[in-house]
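Q: Given only this backbone (381 positions), what sequence would you predict?
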């Protein structure tokens, strides 16, 4: 009997070993398949759940992302910005410019000093606008955000920096706003942090898993699973917020709702910045392949995001909110020189072009700020 029990224990142990080996071989097989037939973006997530903003960048964090287009090193400072260190207190004789936006502004695909906010800072310093005035440009960009999260980030963090000029990089992806951290109720914006799913909340636990960081930057299988979790997180978050932003019977009017809440968010952002005696300036950034609405013929269907972009720009013109539309600058040029081949983001050359286009407008605002003309800004052509 003892011998039989020993044999059963031996076979059970052997079966467990075989199971582990089978699983290991299967995982290796999946890794090799993805690596050669469906390569994933190799990256460690640099953002984390935040109860007010939705998600923010992880302070004091570094990570590398590798795609078919680029190898990007991201370094986050102690306040959760992809930038060098800045104190909350503004140094004397300094003009501070804060730029809010999504992954275009944060600089997905380029190195820390290459996003247009940092290129703009270098250009402004070279101009020597005022020998007694130092210029600081701070990058507040966070990937996958809309004006909704960016307004919340300004309220939570941006106001601490005593900014003189606030720029917002607008992208024609307004679904992020209807699924953001504000809802519209009776025409008023209401903060709604409950829109976020629990996937982001448990993210910190994952970082304690041994070798997770190494696997995230090297394993295609791990990134495939992580990408799936991100998609699920987005669906859960967006569905919760959409149900609160869109009445069931009005689901056919999603475009109108996206325009309405985006316009309201921009107006609120503008108002709060003005109340702080700072200038507000909106930059309409061009998505890859985006065309000016005037270039479409009567027989062509105009994409929804282009129609929404026009409606939002019409709104800000009507409110005399200062802005510059960069889309026309990219209509008649070879965009392949300014965007990555496979990725939808701009390369370093694209960021440099943006900074050069907006430089003159920002210098005009700096000069107005130096003269103390806080509320005299009109639309800048």
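A: Predicted residues:
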């Amino acid at each position: 009997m003892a011998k039989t029990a020993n044999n059963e224990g031996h076979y059970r142990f052997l079966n467990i070993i075989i199971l582990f080996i089978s699983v290991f071989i299967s995982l290796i097989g999946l890794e090799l398949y993805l690596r050669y037939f469906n390569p994933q973006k190799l990256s460690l997530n640099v953002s984390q759940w935040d109860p007010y903003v939705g998600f923010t960048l992880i302070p004091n964090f570094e990570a590398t992302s590798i795609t078919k287009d680029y190898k990007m090193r991201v370094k986050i400072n102690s306040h959760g910005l992809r930038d060098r260190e800045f104190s909350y207190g503004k140094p004397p004789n300094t003009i501070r410019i804060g730029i809010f936006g999504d992954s275009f502004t944060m600089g997905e695909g380029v190195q820390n000093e290459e996003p247009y906010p940092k290129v703009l800072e270098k250009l402004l310093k070279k101009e020597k606008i005022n020998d007694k005035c130092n210029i600081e440009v701070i990058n507040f960009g966070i990937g996958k955000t809309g004006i909704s999260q960016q307004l919340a980030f300004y309220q939570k963090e941006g106001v601490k920096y005593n900014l003189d000029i606030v720029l917002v990089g607008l992208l024609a992806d307004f679904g992020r706003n209807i699924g953001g951290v504000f809802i519209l109720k009776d025409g008023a914006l209401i903060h709604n942090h409950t829109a976020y799913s629990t996937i982001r909340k448990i993210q910190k636990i994952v970082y304690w898993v041994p070798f997770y960081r190494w696997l995230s930057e090297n394993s295609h299988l791990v990134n495939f699973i992580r990408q799936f979790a991100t998609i699920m997180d987005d669906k859960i978050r967006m569905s919760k917020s959409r149900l609160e932003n869109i009445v069931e019977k009005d689901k056919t009017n999603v475009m109108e709702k996206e325009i309405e809440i985006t316009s309201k968010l921009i107006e609120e952002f503008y108002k709060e910045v003005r109340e702080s005696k700072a200038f507000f300036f909106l930059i309409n950034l061009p998505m890859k392949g985006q065309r000016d609405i005037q270039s479409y013929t009567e027989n062509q269907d105009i994409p929804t995001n282009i129609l929404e972009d026009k409606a939002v720009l019409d709104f800000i013109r009507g409110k005399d909110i200062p802005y510059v539309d960069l889309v026309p600058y990219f209509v008649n040029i070879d965009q392949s020189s300014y965007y990555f081949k496979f990725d939808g983001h701009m390369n370093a050359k694209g960021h440099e072009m943006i900074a050069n286009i907006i430089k003159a407008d920002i210098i005009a605002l700096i000069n107005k700020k130096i003269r103390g003309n806080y509320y005299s800004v009109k639309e800048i052509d």
